[in-house]
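Can't paste images in this forum, so I'm doing it all in text. The chain is below; anyone willing to post the predicted structure tokens underneath?
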Amino acid sequence: MTRTAQRRTREQTAEKAAERAAGKVAARPVQAPPPAGDRRRRRLTDQARAYGFLLGGVICFALFSWYPAIRAVVIAFQKYTPGSDPEWVGTANFTRVFADPEFAAAWRNTLTFTLLALLIGFAIPFVLALVLNELRHAKAFFRVVVYLPVMIPPVVSALLWKWFYDPGTGLANEALRFLHLPTSNWSNGADTALVSLVIVATWANLGGTVLIYLAALQSIPGELYEAAELDGANLLQRVRHVTIPQTRFVILMLMLLQIIATMQVFTEPFVITGGGPENATVTVLYLIYKYAFLYNDFGGACALSVLLLALLGVFSAAYLRLTRSEGDV
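Text version of the structure:
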């Protein structure tokens, strides 16, 4: 067979293969989209599966959060002790709580504690975050050191500080004696006990606050600081005109969270001072504990809880509004 004949044979074979392929493609039926009912059924199945995964978490949240809150509101209007039938008493629990001298002392101590914790708990973590942000070496080491107090269980931390504040053998007074300075009663003195507890709470929560501030500082564009330096701004001016405006959302968020947390302070006064001396460290949450487990007055305890819940609800709503407005920007 000549080359011309071979070439013609190959061309004919290729043409036949192309025709067969075209015929197969043309003969292949076009699949119609699934009916609307099937699509709707599939979508409902996917949604049901998603809600099924969420159902366990919702049940746990309702069981351990919503139910106790609703139950506390109901008991606040009842005379109730465990093992007895509840009796509706209207607002008598609130009237009795308002007349209790410890009520005013507890709210005064709680609000004072919150104010001091805001002043101390904002300044110290913010300054530490600024210092850590400027470090060039051993950043990871110092972050771990700052975060260590958060890893200590709250009760253990309170017991350590109780020993530290001991007027006779505590390390705080030993350091003052070494420096030839007058000693203090610390948590045993009516004038110094609340401030001592604020120091404990600030130290225990320092690490988390510092790391949040540090993350906010590292998100600030470096060009802003370079422009401020070109304008002749010193360190304090850069902090005032660049750092604080750029981190104002984080500052406000942490302030609201700190208010909510410090108004529920319980571990420090319970472990270190027991509410003393002279009710100087009785907080609202500690008074709720006393009503429920020392006075066996669950109606009064729930009345106090409802008042605290209402106040915390205001700050929680402010926090949610702040986060929502920031997310819309």
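Strands lie at 78-79, 87-88. The CA atoms of residues 124 and 319 lie 22 Å apart.
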